[in-house]
Amino acid sequence: MLPADTPALSVSDVNRRARSLLEQGIGEVWVEGELSGVSRPASGHVYFTLKDANAQLRGALFRSRARFVATPMRDGDRVKVRGRVSLFEPRGDYQLIAEAVQAVGEGELLAALERLKQRLAAEGVFANARPLPCPPRHLLVLTSPTGAAIRDVMAVLAARWPLARVTLIAVPVQGREAAPALIGALGLLNRQQALDPARDVILITRGGGSLEDLWAFNDEHLARAIFHSRLPVMSAVGHEVDTTLSDLAADVRAPTPSAAAEQLVPDRHDLLRRLVSLERQLHRATQARLNRDAQRLDHLRARLRHPGEVLDRQRLTLNEVDARLARAMQRRLADERRRLAHLQRRLAVRPPRREVEQATIRLTAARTRLEQAMQHAQARQRERLTGLARQLQAVSPLAVLGRGYAILEDDRGQVIRRAADTHPGQALTARLGEGRLLVQVTGKVD
Protein backbone atom coordinates (compact mmCIF):
# COMPACT_ATOMS: atom_id res chain seq x y z
CA MET A 1 0.00 0.00 0.00
CA LEU A 2 1.35 3.41 -1.01
CA PRO A 3 2.04 5.90 1.76
CA ALA A 4 -0.33 8.84 1.97
CA ASP A 5 2.48 11.32 1.24
CA THR A 6 3.29 9.72 -2.15
CA PRO A 7 3.09 12.43 -4.90
CA ALA A 8 -0.17 12.14 -6.82
CA LEU A 9 -0.30 11.81 -10.61
CA SER A 10 -2.47 13.96 -12.79
CA VAL A 11 -5.19 12.39 -14.92
CA SER A 12 -3.14 13.28 -18.02
CA ASP A 13 -0.12 11.47 -16.59
CA VAL A 14 -2.16 8.35 -15.89
CA ASN A 15 -3.72 8.32 -19.37
CA ARG A 16 -0.34 8.98 -20.99
CA ARG A 17 1.20 6.03 -19.13
CA ALA A 18 -1.75 3.81 -20.01
CA ARG A 19 -1.46 4.72 -23.72
CA SER A 20 2.26 3.96 -23.71
CA LEU A 21 1.69 0.58 -22.01
CA LEU A 22 -1.03 -0.35 -24.52
CA GLU A 23 0.96 0.65 -27.59
CA GLN A 24 4.17 -0.99 -26.43
CA GLY A 25 2.64 -4.04 -24.79
CA ILE A 26 0.19 -5.09 -27.53
CA GLY A 27 1.53 -3.38 -30.62
CA GLU A 28 0.02 -3.95 -34.07
CA VAL A 29 -2.58 -6.74 -34.36
CA TRP A 30 -5.33 -8.11 -36.60
CA VAL A 31 -8.75 -8.02 -34.91
CA GLU A 32 -11.83 -9.79 -36.33
CA GLY A 33 -15.37 -8.83 -35.42
CA GLU A 34 -18.69 -7.37 -36.51
CA LEU A 35 -19.00 -3.68 -37.36
CA SER A 36 -21.53 -1.54 -35.56
CA GLY A 37 -22.03 2.16 -34.99
CA VAL A 38 -20.11 3.10 -38.18
CA SER A 39 -20.05 6.89 -38.56
CA ARG A 40 -18.40 9.18 -41.10
CA PRO A 41 -18.27 12.81 -39.94
CA ALA A 42 -17.29 15.68 -42.24
CA SER A 43 -13.63 15.32 -41.18
CA GLY A 44 -13.34 12.21 -43.37
CA HIS A 45 -12.44 9.94 -40.45
CA VAL A 46 -14.41 6.73 -39.87
CA TYR A 47 -15.41 5.73 -36.34
CA PHE A 48 -16.79 2.29 -35.56
CA THR A 49 -17.15 -0.45 -32.97
CA LEU A 50 -15.93 -4.04 -33.37
CA LYS A 51 -17.88 -6.58 -31.34
CA ASP A 52 -18.30 -10.29 -30.84
CA ALA A 53 -20.59 -12.27 -28.57
CA ASN A 54 -18.78 -11.26 -25.38
CA ALA A 55 -17.08 -7.89 -25.87
CA GLN A 56 -16.71 -4.81 -28.00
CA LEU A 57 -13.82 -2.50 -29.00
CA ARG A 58 -14.03 1.07 -30.25
CA GLY A 59 -12.02 1.88 -33.36
CA ALA A 60 -10.98 4.83 -35.54
CA LEU A 61 -9.89 4.85 -39.20
CA PHE A 62 -8.34 8.23 -39.95
CA ARG A 63 -8.87 9.99 -43.27
CA SER A 64 -5.24 9.53 -44.39
CA ARG A 65 -5.77 5.74 -44.35
CA ALA A 66 -9.49 5.61 -45.12
CA ARG A 67 -8.98 6.63 -48.76
CA PHE A 68 -6.86 3.50 -49.31
CA VAL A 69 -9.51 1.11 -47.94
CA ALA A 70 -11.66 -0.41 -50.71
CA THR A 71 -13.76 -2.60 -48.41
CA PRO A 72 -17.14 -0.97 -47.69
CA MET A 73 -17.71 -0.55 -43.95
CA ARG A 74 -21.36 -1.09 -43.05
CA ASP A 75 -23.05 -2.00 -39.83
CA GLY A 76 -23.31 -5.77 -39.53
CA ASP A 77 -20.36 -6.54 -41.85
CA ARG A 78 -17.81 -8.98 -40.51
CA VAL A 79 -14.30 -7.65 -41.09
CA LYS A 80 -10.68 -8.01 -40.11
CA VAL A 81 -8.99 -4.81 -39.00
CA ARG A 82 -5.24 -4.32 -38.78
CA GLY A 83 -4.15 -1.65 -36.34
CA ARG A 84 -2.55 -0.79 -33.02
CA VAL A 85 -4.27 -0.63 -29.65
CA SER A 86 -4.07 2.83 -28.09
CA LEU A 87 -5.91 5.19 -25.79
CA PHE A 88 -7.51 8.55 -26.55
CA GLU A 89 -6.11 10.59 -23.67
CA PRO A 90 -8.62 13.48 -23.51
CA ARG A 91 -11.53 11.08 -22.80
CA GLY A 92 -9.62 8.05 -21.57
CA ASP A 93 -11.21 5.91 -24.30
CA TYR A 94 -9.54 2.61 -25.08
CA GLN A 95 -9.59 2.15 -28.92
CA LEU A 96 -8.07 0.48 -31.97
CA ILE A 97 -6.34 2.81 -34.46
CA ALA A 98 -7.02 1.07 -37.80
CA GLU A 99 -4.52 0.89 -40.67
CA ALA A 100 -6.32 -1.56 -43.01
CA VAL A 101 -9.70 -3.21 -43.29
CA GLN A 102 -10.58 -6.48 -45.05
CA ALA A 103 -13.84 -8.32 -45.43
CA VAL A 104 -13.57 -11.73 -43.81
CA GLY A 105 -12.78 -14.30 -46.52
CA GLU A 106 -10.70 -11.90 -48.62
CA GLY A 107 -7.47 -12.72 -46.81
CA GLU A 108 -6.82 -16.03 -48.54
CA LEU A 109 -7.76 -14.55 -51.90
CA LEU A 110 -5.39 -11.63 -51.40
CA ALA A 111 -2.61 -13.96 -50.26
CA ALA A 112 -2.97 -16.03 -53.45
CA LEU A 113 -3.00 -12.83 -55.47
CA GLU A 114 0.16 -11.64 -53.74
CA ARG A 115 1.95 -14.91 -54.54
CA LEU A 116 0.91 -14.64 -58.19
CA LYS A 117 2.05 -11.02 -58.26
CA GLN A 118 5.49 -11.96 -56.93
CA ARG A 119 5.84 -14.78 -59.48
CA LEU A 120 4.90 -12.56 -62.41
CA ALA A 121 7.26 -9.84 -61.18
CA ALA A 122 10.11 -12.35 -61.02
CA GLU A 123 9.36 -13.36 -64.62
CA GLY A 124 9.52 -9.72 -65.77
CA VAL A 125 5.82 -9.44 -66.70
CA PHE A 126 5.68 -6.05 -64.93
CA ALA A 127 8.76 -4.66 -66.72
CA ASN A 128 6.90 -2.85 -69.53
CA ALA A 129 7.53 0.89 -69.57
CA ARG A 130 7.16 2.06 -73.16
CA PRO A 131 6.38 5.77 -73.53
CA LEU A 132 2.97 6.60 -75.00
CA PRO A 133 2.54 9.13 -77.83
CA CYS A 134 0.82 12.29 -76.68
CA PRO A 135 -1.65 12.72 -78.21
CA PRO A 136 -2.22 9.30 -79.76
CA ARG A 137 -3.21 9.18 -83.42
CA HIS A 138 -5.85 6.52 -82.81
CA LEU A 139 -6.89 5.46 -79.31
CA LEU A 140 -8.48 2.02 -78.79
CA VAL A 141 -10.56 1.82 -75.60
CA LEU A 142 -11.41 -1.62 -74.17
CA THR A 143 -14.27 -1.22 -71.70
CA SER A 144 -17.99 -1.65 -71.20
CA PRO A 145 -20.03 0.55 -73.57
CA THR A 146 -22.54 1.31 -70.79
CA GLY A 147 -20.18 1.93 -67.91
CA ALA A 148 -19.21 5.23 -66.35
CA ALA A 149 -15.59 4.76 -67.38
CA ILE A 150 -16.17 5.36 -71.11
CA ARG A 151 -18.32 8.39 -70.33
CA ASP A 152 -15.59 9.85 -68.12
CA VAL A 153 -12.92 9.17 -70.74
CA MET A 154 -14.91 10.70 -73.60
CA ALA A 155 -15.88 13.72 -71.52
CA VAL A 156 -12.28 14.46 -70.62
CA LEU A 157 -11.09 13.90 -74.21
CA ALA A 158 -13.80 16.20 -75.56
CA ALA A 159 -12.86 18.93 -73.09
CA ARG A 160 -9.09 18.63 -73.47
CA TRP A 161 -8.52 17.43 -77.07
CA PRO A 162 -11.59 17.27 -79.34
CA LEU A 163 -9.42 16.10 -82.25
CA ALA A 164 -8.83 12.74 -80.54
CA ARG A 165 -9.75 9.74 -82.69
CA VAL A 166 -11.26 7.07 -80.43
CA THR A 167 -12.59 3.58 -81.17
CA LEU A 168 -14.55 1.76 -78.45
CA ILE A 169 -13.99 -2.00 -78.27
CA ALA A 170 -16.96 -3.22 -76.24
CA VAL A 171 -15.98 -5.95 -73.76
CA PRO A 172 -17.40 -7.12 -70.44
CA VAL A 173 -15.38 -5.79 -67.50
CA GLN A 174 -16.83 -7.98 -64.74
CA GLY A 175 -17.54 -11.66 -64.32
CA ARG A 176 -16.06 -14.86 -65.70
CA GLU A 177 -16.29 -13.85 -69.36
CA ALA A 178 -14.45 -10.52 -68.82
CA ALA A 179 -10.82 -11.79 -68.81
CA PRO A 180 -11.20 -14.06 -71.92
CA ALA A 181 -12.95 -11.24 -73.78
CA LEU A 182 -10.20 -8.76 -72.94
CA ILE A 183 -7.50 -11.25 -73.97
CA GLY A 184 -9.26 -11.94 -77.29
CA ALA A 185 -9.68 -8.23 -78.01
CA LEU A 186 -5.99 -7.56 -77.31
CA GLY A 187 -4.94 -10.35 -79.67
CA LEU A 188 -7.27 -9.12 -82.42
CA LEU A 189 -6.09 -5.51 -82.15
CA ASN A 190 -2.43 -6.56 -82.33
CA ARG A 191 -3.12 -8.71 -85.41
CA GLN A 192 -4.98 -5.84 -87.12
CA GLN A 193 -2.26 -3.29 -86.44
CA ALA A 194 -0.82 -3.71 -89.94
CA LEU A 195 -4.20 -2.73 -91.43
CA ASP A 196 -4.22 0.58 -89.60
CA PRO A 197 -0.70 1.68 -88.49
CA ALA A 198 -2.22 4.82 -86.95
CA ARG A 199 -3.53 2.71 -84.06
CA ASP A 200 -0.89 3.40 -81.46
CA VAL A 201 -2.39 3.15 -77.93
CA ILE A 202 -4.75 0.73 -76.15
CA LEU A 203 -6.61 1.88 -73.03
CA ILE A 204 -8.08 -0.79 -70.74
CA THR A 205 -10.40 0.80 -68.18
CA ARG A 206 -13.39 0.45 -65.91
CA GLY A 207 -14.77 2.21 -62.85
CA GLY A 208 -14.31 1.29 -59.23
CA GLY A 209 -15.83 -1.64 -57.39
CA SER A 210 -15.24 -4.31 -54.83
CA LEU A 211 -12.43 -6.83 -54.99
CA GLU A 212 -14.78 -9.31 -56.64
CA ASP A 213 -15.87 -6.73 -59.22
CA LEU A 214 -12.26 -6.07 -60.24
CA TRP A 215 -11.07 -9.66 -60.03
CA ALA A 216 -11.12 -10.21 -63.82
CA PHE A 217 -8.24 -7.72 -64.11
CA ASN A 218 -6.14 -9.89 -61.79
CA ASP A 219 -6.23 -12.75 -64.30
CA GLU A 220 -2.74 -14.17 -64.96
CA HIS A 221 -3.40 -14.74 -68.69
CA LEU A 222 -4.67 -11.19 -69.13
CA ALA A 223 -1.53 -9.81 -67.47
CA ARG A 224 0.63 -11.88 -69.85
CA ALA A 225 -1.41 -10.74 -72.87
CA ILE A 226 -0.86 -7.11 -71.87
CA PHE A 227 2.87 -7.75 -71.41
CA HIS A 228 3.19 -9.34 -74.89
CA SER A 229 1.11 -6.68 -76.67
CA ARG A 230 2.99 -4.96 -79.48
CA LEU A 231 0.78 -1.93 -79.06
CA PRO A 232 1.51 0.04 -75.87
CA VAL A 233 -1.15 -0.38 -73.21
CA MET A 234 -2.44 1.99 -70.53
CA SER A 235 -4.48 0.52 -67.69
CA ALA A 236 -6.92 2.52 -65.55
CA VAL A 237 -8.94 0.07 -63.45
CA GLY A 238 -10.93 1.13 -60.42
CA HIS A 239 -10.03 3.98 -58.12
CA GLU A 240 -6.65 5.27 -56.98
CA VAL A 241 -6.42 2.72 -54.17
CA ASP A 242 -7.10 -0.23 -56.50
CA THR A 243 -4.06 -1.85 -58.11
CA THR A 244 -4.59 -4.90 -60.30
CA LEU A 245 -2.22 -7.16 -62.22
CA SER A 246 -3.38 -5.43 -65.41
CA ASP A 247 -2.16 -2.10 -63.99
CA LEU A 248 1.23 -3.58 -63.17
CA ALA A 249 1.66 -5.32 -66.54
CA ALA A 250 0.70 -2.25 -68.58
CA ASP A 251 3.21 0.24 -69.93
CA VAL A 252 1.52 3.08 -68.03
CA ARG A 253 -0.96 2.96 -65.15
CA ALA A 254 -3.52 5.69 -64.42
CA PRO A 255 -5.39 5.84 -61.09
CA THR A 256 -8.83 6.50 -62.67
CA PRO A 257 -10.40 6.57 -66.16
CA SER A 258 -10.51 10.36 -66.07
CA ALA A 259 -6.85 10.53 -65.07
CA ALA A 260 -6.03 8.16 -67.95
CA ALA A 261 -7.66 10.51 -70.46
CA GLU A 262 -5.79 13.45 -68.93
CA GLN A 263 -2.47 11.62 -69.35
CA LEU A 264 -3.21 10.54 -72.92
CA VAL A 265 -3.91 13.94 -74.46
CA PRO A 266 -2.69 17.47 -73.78
CA ASP A 267 -5.06 20.16 -72.57
CA ARG A 268 -5.95 22.39 -75.51
CA HIS A 269 -6.54 25.27 -73.13
CA ASP A 270 -3.03 24.91 -71.73
CA LEU A 271 -1.63 24.74 -75.26
CA LEU A 272 -3.65 27.78 -76.26
CA ARG A 273 -2.40 29.69 -73.22
CA ARG A 274 1.13 28.58 -74.05
CA LEU A 275 0.71 29.69 -77.66
CA VAL A 276 -0.60 33.05 -76.52
CA SER A 277 2.32 33.37 -74.11
CA LEU A 278 4.80 32.39 -76.83
CA GLU A 279 3.15 34.86 -79.20
CA ARG A 280 3.58 37.62 -76.64
CA GLN A 281 7.19 36.62 -76.03
CA LEU A 282 7.83 36.58 -79.78
CA HIS A 283 6.20 39.99 -80.17
CA ARG A 284 8.27 41.43 -77.31
CA ALA A 285 11.46 39.84 -78.65
CA THR A 286 10.74 41.10 -82.18
CA GLN A 287 9.98 44.60 -80.92
CA ALA A 288 13.13 44.62 -78.81
CA ARG A 289 15.18 43.44 -81.80
CA LEU A 290 13.67 46.14 -84.01
CA ASN A 291 14.41 48.77 -81.37
CA ARG A 292 18.04 47.60 -81.06
CA ASP A 293 18.46 47.55 -84.84
CA ALA A 294 16.89 50.99 -85.19
CA GLN A 295 19.25 52.37 -82.55
CA ARG A 296 22.18 50.72 -84.27
CA LEU A 297 21.05 52.14 -87.62
CA ASP A 298 20.87 55.63 -86.13
CA HIS A 299 24.35 55.20 -84.72
CA LEU A 300 25.72 54.02 -88.07
CA ARG A 301 23.90 56.82 -89.89
CA ALA A 302 25.53 59.34 -87.58
CA ARG A 303 28.96 57.85 -88.32
CA LEU A 304 28.35 57.65 -92.07
CA ARG A 305 30.14 60.30 -94.21
CA HIS A 306 29.57 61.33 -97.84
CA PRO A 307 31.81 59.30 -100.19
CA GLY A 308 33.14 62.54 -101.70
CA GLU A 309 34.39 63.68 -98.31
CA VAL A 310 36.02 60.32 -97.72
CA LEU A 311 37.68 60.45 -101.17
CA ASP A 312 38.93 64.01 -100.61
CA ARG A 313 40.37 63.06 -97.25
CA GLN A 314 42.03 59.97 -98.70
CA ARG A 315 43.31 62.03 -101.67
CA LEU A 316 44.96 64.48 -99.28
CA THR A 317 46.46 61.61 -97.34
CA LEU A 318 47.74 60.06 -100.58
CA ASN A 319 49.34 63.32 -101.71
CA GLU A 320 51.03 63.70 -98.34
CA VAL A 321 52.34 60.14 -98.44
CA ASP A 322 53.53 60.64 -102.04
CA ALA A 323 55.42 63.77 -101.06
CA ARG A 324 57.04 62.03 -98.06
CA LEU A 325 58.04 59.15 -100.32
CA ALA A 326 59.64 61.47 -102.90
CA ARG A 327 61.61 63.27 -100.21
CA ALA A 328 62.76 59.99 -98.69
CA MET A 329 63.89 58.70 -102.11
CA GLN A 330 65.86 61.89 -102.77
CA ARG A 331 67.57 61.63 -99.39
CA ARG A 332 68.36 57.96 -100.00
CA LEU A 333 69.83 58.72 -103.46
CA ALA A 334 71.96 61.54 -102.06
CA ASP A 335 73.27 59.26 -99.30
CA GLU A 336 74.08 56.50 -101.81
CA ARG A 337 75.90 58.98 -104.10
CA ARG A 338 78.02 60.21 -101.21
CA ARG A 339 78.83 56.61 -100.19
CA LEU A 340 79.77 55.74 -103.76
CA ALA A 341 82.07 58.75 -104.06
CA HIS A 342 83.78 57.81 -100.79
CA LEU A 343 84.38 54.24 -101.98
CA GLN A 344 85.74 55.52 -105.32
CA ARG A 345 88.25 57.72 -103.49
CA ARG A 346 89.38 54.79 -101.33
CA LEU A 347 89.76 52.67 -104.44
CA ALA A 348 91.86 55.30 -106.15
CA VAL A 349 94.19 55.52 -103.16
CA ARG A 350 94.65 51.73 -102.89
CA PRO A 351 94.13 50.05 -106.29
CA PRO A 352 93.24 46.34 -106.16
CA ARG A 353 96.13 45.30 -108.46
CA ARG A 354 98.71 46.49 -105.97
CA GLU A 355 96.93 44.65 -103.14
CA VAL A 356 96.89 41.43 -105.20
CA GLU A 357 100.61 41.69 -106.02
CA GLN A 358 101.55 42.22 -102.39
CA ALA A 359 99.35 39.33 -101.31
CA THR A 360 101.01 37.08 -103.94
CA ILE A 361 104.44 37.93 -102.59
CA ARG A 362 103.31 37.17 -99.02
CA LEU A 363 101.78 33.85 -100.12
CA THR A 364 105.01 32.74 -101.88
CA ALA A 365 107.12 33.54 -98.81
CA ALA A 366 104.67 31.71 -96.53
CA ARG A 367 104.73 28.61 -98.80
CA THR A 368 108.54 28.55 -98.74
CA ARG A 369 108.59 28.79 -94.95
CA LEU A 370 105.97 26.05 -94.66
CA GLU A 371 107.96 23.63 -96.85
CA GLN A 372 111.15 24.23 -94.86
CA ALA A 373 109.33 23.78 -91.56
CA MET A 374 107.78 20.50 -92.78
CA GLN A 375 111.19 19.15 -93.83
CA HIS A 376 112.72 20.05 -90.45
CA ALA A 377 109.77 18.50 -88.60
CA GLN A 378 109.95 15.27 -90.63
CA ALA A 379 113.67 14.95 -89.89
CA ARG A 380 113.10 15.44 -86.16
CA GLN A 381 110.25 12.93 -86.08
CA ARG A 382 112.30 10.37 -88.06
CA GLU A 383 115.17 10.64 -85.60
CA ARG A 384 112.74 10.28 -82.68
CA LEU A 385 111.13 7.22 -84.29
CA THR A 386 114.54 5.58 -84.78
CA GLY A 387 115.40 6.10 -81.10
CA LEU A 388 112.05 4.69 -79.97
CA ALA A 389 112.54 1.65 -82.21
CA ARG A 390 115.91 0.97 -80.63
CA GLN A 391 114.39 1.24 -77.16
CA LEU A 392 111.55 -1.08 -78.11
CA GLN A 393 113.97 -3.62 -79.59
CA ALA A 394 115.97 -3.59 -76.38
CA VAL A 395 112.96 -4.54 -74.22
CA SER A 396 111.05 -6.65 -76.73
CA PRO A 397 110.50 -10.35 -75.82
CA LEU A 398 111.34 -11.22 -79.41
CA ALA A 399 114.83 -9.92 -78.86
CA VAL A 400 115.15 -12.25 -75.85
CA LEU A 401 113.90 -15.15 -77.96
CA GLY A 402 116.52 -14.29 -80.56
CA ARG A 403 119.21 -14.95 -78.00
CA GLY A 404 118.07 -18.61 -77.63
CA TYR A 405 115.27 -18.36 -75.13
CA ALA A 406 111.72 -19.79 -75.57
CA ILE A 407 108.23 -19.00 -74.18
CA LEU A 408 105.99 -21.92 -73.18
CA GLU A 409 102.19 -21.57 -73.51
CA ASP A 410 99.38 -24.03 -72.67
CA ASP A 411 96.42 -24.80 -74.93
CA ARG A 412 94.61 -21.68 -73.63
CA GLY A 413 97.52 -19.36 -74.53
CA GLN A 414 98.54 -18.89 -70.88
CA VAL A 415 102.32 -18.46 -70.32
CA ILE A 416 103.91 -21.25 -68.19
CA ARG A 417 106.11 -19.66 -65.54
CA ARG A 418 106.55 -22.60 -63.12
CA ALA A 419 107.09 -26.32 -63.60
CA ALA A 420 104.45 -26.90 -60.95
CA ASP A 421 101.90 -25.43 -63.36
CA THR A 422 102.31 -28.43 -65.72
CA HIS A 423 101.66 -32.15 -65.53
CA PRO A 424 103.14 -35.13 -67.41
CA GLY A 425 101.63 -35.68 -70.82
CA GLN A 426 100.47 -32.05 -71.13
CA ALA A 427 100.88 -30.55 -74.63
CA LEU A 428 102.57 -27.14 -74.73
CA THR A 429 103.60 -24.66 -77.40
CA ALA A 430 107.16 -23.35 -77.41
CA ARG A 431 107.54 -19.95 -79.04
CA LEU A 432 111.12 -19.39 -80.38
CA GLY A 433 112.84 -16.43 -81.96
CA GLU A 434 111.75 -17.81 -85.30
CA GLY A 435 108.72 -20.15 -85.38
CA ARG A 436 106.89 -22.35 -82.82
CA LEU A 437 107.25 -25.92 -81.58
CA LEU A 438 104.71 -28.34 -80.12
CA VAL A 439 106.23 -30.13 -77.09
CA GLN A 440 104.92 -32.62 -74.48
CA VAL A 441 105.77 -32.73 -70.82
CA THR A 442 107.28 -36.16 -69.97
CA GLY A 443 108.28 -35.32 -66.44
CA LYS A 444 109.48 -32.72 -64.00
CA VAL A 445 113.12 -32.16 -62.89
CA ASP A 446 113.58 -30.92 -59.34
TrEMBL record:
Main subcellular localisation: cytoplasm
Chain coiled-coil ranges: 268-376
Example of a GO MF term: nucleic acid binding
Keyword Phosphoprotein applies: no
Enzyme Commission number, as recorded: 3.1.11.6
Pfam families xrefs: Exonuc_VII_L, tRNA_anti_2
The reaction(s) this protein catalyses: Exonucleolytic cleavage in either 5'- to 3'- or 3'- to 5'-direction to yield nucleoside 5'-phosphates
Superkingdom of the source species: Bacteria
Subcellular location, record wording: Cytoplasm
Keyword Hydrolase attributed: yes
InterPro entries: Exonuc_VII_L (IPR003753), Exonuc_VII_lsu_C (IPR020579), OB-fold_nuc-bd_dom (IPR025824)
Record's keyword terms, sorted: Coiled coil, Cytoplasm, Exonuclease, Hydrolase, Nuclease
Occurrences of domain Exonuclease VII large subunit C-terminal (ranges): 128-438
Domain OB-fold nucleic acid binding: start-end pairs: 9-101
GO biological process: DNA catabolic process
Any one cellular-component term (Gene Ontology): exodeoxyribonuclease VII complex
Assembly description: Heterooligomer composed of large and small subunits.
Alphabetical list of NCBIfam families matching this protein: xseA
Cited PANTHER family: EXODEOXYRIBONUCLEASE 7 LARGE SUBUNIT (PTHR30008)
Family indicated by similarity: Belongs to the XseA family.
Role this protein plays: Bidirectionally degrades single-stranded DNA into large acid-insoluble oligonucleotides, which are then degraded further into small acid-soluble oligonucleotides.
Protein name in UniProt: Exodeoxyribonuclease 7 large subunit
Species assigned in the record: Billgrantia montanilacus
